[in-house]
From TrEMBL:
Enzyme Commission numbers on file: 1.1.2.4
Alphabetized GO MF terms: D-lactate dehydrogenase (cytochrome) activity; D-lactate dehydrogenase (NAD+) activity; FAD binding
A single GO BP: lactate catabolic process
InterPro entries, A to Z: FAD-bd_oxidored_4_C, FAD-bd_PCMH, FAD-bd_PCMH-like_sf, FAD-bd_PCMH_sub2, FAD-linked_Oxase-like_C, Oxid_FAD_bind_N
Places the protein is found: Mitochondrion
Name of the protein in its database record: D-lactate dehydrogenase (cytochrome)
Source organism of the structure: hydrothermal vent metagenome
Length: 387
C-alpha cells in the first residue's frame, strides 16, 4: 500500500493496489499533479478495489470524480501488475490486456500494483453552483455541462435531497426549488472563464439562478460525503443506473412516479459522467428493522434499473448480490468474455468464486436469474398491497 514510482514527464504514478485514492492524491498534490479520476469514497477505497469494481462493465469499471472529463477508471490506467488464479504474475501495459482485469469484480485476478495516468494541476479552477426550476431545465444544463471542455466534475440533486440534508443539519443551500447543479470547471483560464459565463447565461434562460461561489466551494468540499444523508434512514434503498443525459427529464419523471407516496422520504442524486451519460441514484429512506416492509421496498432497486434500461441506459455495478445484472452491465459480448477470462486465468475458481458472473449461494449452487425476478415481483406485490 505504498507509492512506488512517479514520473512528472510521463505523467504517471505507480502504487501498491492497497493504497487509498486519497493517499495518492495527497502525494501528487505536493508535486503539482492530481489524479484524473477517483471515486467519491476516496478516503477509504483502494486502487485495486475501485479498479476491480464493475461499474459500467468489463474494461471500463467505475466512474467518479473526473469522469466527465476523463471517462471511467479503465481509460486512466497505464499499467497493472496482477496475480492470476494460476499463480502467474502478469505485468500489463497494453490497454487490451489491462482491460481483462478492470471492472471484472476481481474474478479474473488479484491486482497488486497499479500505474495511473495523472494530470498537471489545472491553471485555472472555477466552481459553480446553479439551480434549475424543473426537470427540463436540469436536462438542458446537464447536457451542456457534459459537452463542455473544461468541466472536470459535475453532479446534481433534487430539492428533496436538500431538504433532507437541511433536516439532518448537513450543509445545503436553502430555498432551492427543482434541482441544484454543481460543476467544477478546470483548465486554461480563457476556456474556464468563457464556459462559466455560458453556463451562467443558460441558467438564466432556464429560469434558474447562479448561487454565490462560496456556496459552490462548500459543495466541492462535501463531494466525498454523499452518504451522510444515510443518517436520515437509518437505511437507504438506493438505485444506481446510467442513462443518456438526452433522456434525463423523462427518466426523472419515471423515477418520481415510481417513488412511494405519503410521508416516505425520497430523493435523487446524480453525477454527470462521460458524455452522453449521467448516473442516477434515486434513494428511499427506509428502516431495515421493519422486517417485511423493508424487504418489500427492496423491489424499488429493480424498478429503477428497469427505468434506466427503458431509456437506453444500464444498471451500474454487479458485485455479488446484483450478479443477475451481469449481462446488462457488461453487455452480452462482455459477459461472454468475462466467463472465458475466468476459465483462462482462474480455472480452479479460487479468486472471488461465485461472484460477478453468477450469484452463488452459501449452499454452493448459483441462484438462477428467474428466481431474482420472481422474488422482486413478489416483493413489489407486497409493496403495492401497502405492507
Ligand atoms: C461513500 C461511497 C462513495 C462511493 N463512490 C463511488 C464512486 O464515486 N464511483 C463508484 O464507481 N463507486 C463508488 N462507490 C462504490 C465503490 O465501488 C467503492 O467505494 C470502492 O470501489 C471500493 O473500494 P474498496 O477498496 O473498498 O474495495 P472493496 O469494496 O473491498 O472491493 C470491491 C471489489 O473489488 C475486489 N477487489 C478488492 N481489491 C482487489 C484487488 N486488489 N484485486 C482484485 N480485486 C479486488 C473485491 O473482491 C470486490 O469484489 C462508493 C461507495 C461509498 C460507500
Amino acid at each position: 500500500n505504498q507509492i512506488h514510482d512517479f514520473s512528472a514527464d510521463g505523467e504517471w504514478i505507480e502504487a501498491g493496489a492497497g493504497t487509498t485514492w486519497e493517499n495518492v492524491e495527497r502525494y501528487l498534490e505536493k508535486k503539482g499533479f492530481s489524479l484524473r479520476v477517483y471515486p467519491t469514497s476516496m478516503p477509504a477505497a483502494t486502487l485495486g478495489g475501485w479498479i476491480a469494481s464493475s461499474g459500467s462493465g468489463l474494461g471500463a469499471g467505475g466512474s467518479g470524480v473526473g469522469s466527465v472529463m476523463y471517462g471511467p477508471v479503465g481509460k486512466n490506467l497505464a499499467g497493472l501488475e496482477v496475480v492470476t488464479g494460476l499463480g502467474e504474475i502478469l505485468n500489463l501495459s497494453e490497454p487490451e490486456d489491462i482491460a481483462d482485469f478492470v471492472g471484472a469484480d476481481g474474478i479474473t485476478g488479484f491486482i497488486t500494483k497499479v500505474r495511473l495516468k495523472i494530470r498537471k494541476k489545472p491553471a485555472s479552477v472555477r466552481r459553480t453552483l446553479i439551480t434549475a426550476p424543473d426537470a427540463e431545465g436540469a436536462q438542458r444544463l446537464v447536457e451542456a455541462i457534459g459537452a463542455m471542455k473544461s468541466v472536470y466534475f459535475a453532479q446534481f440533486e433534487d430539492a428533496s435531497m436538500l431538504e433532507i440534508k437541511t433536516s439532518l443539519g448537513l450543509h445545503a443551500p436553502l430555498g432551492v426549488k427543482g434541482f441544484l447543479l454543481f460543476a467544477s470547471l478546470e483548465g486554461d483560464a480563457e476556456t474556464v472563464r468563457s464556459e462559466c459565463d455560458q453556463l451562467k447565461k443558460m441558467t438564466g434562460e432556464c429560469g434558474g439562478k447562479t448561487l454565490p461561489e462560496t456556496e459552490a466551494q462548500k459543495e466541492w468540499e462535501e463531494r466525498l460525503y454523499p452518504m451522510r444523508v444515510k443518517r436520515g434512514g437509518p437505511t437507504v434503498i438506493a438505485g444506481e443506473f446510467m442513462a443518456p443525459s438526452s433522456r434525463l427529464a423523462s427518466v426523472l419523471k419515471d423515477v418520481y412516479s415510481e417513488f412511494p407516496g405519503g410521508a416516505a422520504k425520497r430523493a435523487i442524486h446524480g453525477v454527470v459522467i462521460e458524455a452522453p451519460d449521467v448516473m442516477l441514484m434515486p434513494q428511499i429512506f427506509s428502516d431495515e428493522r421493519k422486517g417485511l416492509k423493508f424487504l418489500a421496498s427492496l423491489a424499488y432497486v429493480k424498478r429503477f434499473n428497469d427505468i434506466g434500461l427503458r431509456h437506453g441506459g444500464q444498471p451500474y455495478g454487479v458485485g455479488h448480490l446484483n450478479a443477475f445484472n451481469a449481462k446488462a452491465v457488461h453487455g452480452q459480448a462482455g459477459y461472454d468474455r468475462l466467463k472465458a477470462l475466468k476459465k483462462k486465468y482462474d480455472p480452479g475458481d479460487i479468486i472471488n468464486p461465485g461472484k460477478g458472473i453468477e450469484h452463488r449461494t452459501r449452499f454452493g449452487f448459483a441462484a438462477p436469474p428467474f428466481l431474482y425476478n420472481l422474488s422482486m415481483f413478489g416483493l413489489g406485490l407486497f409493496r403495492r398491497l401497502g405492507v
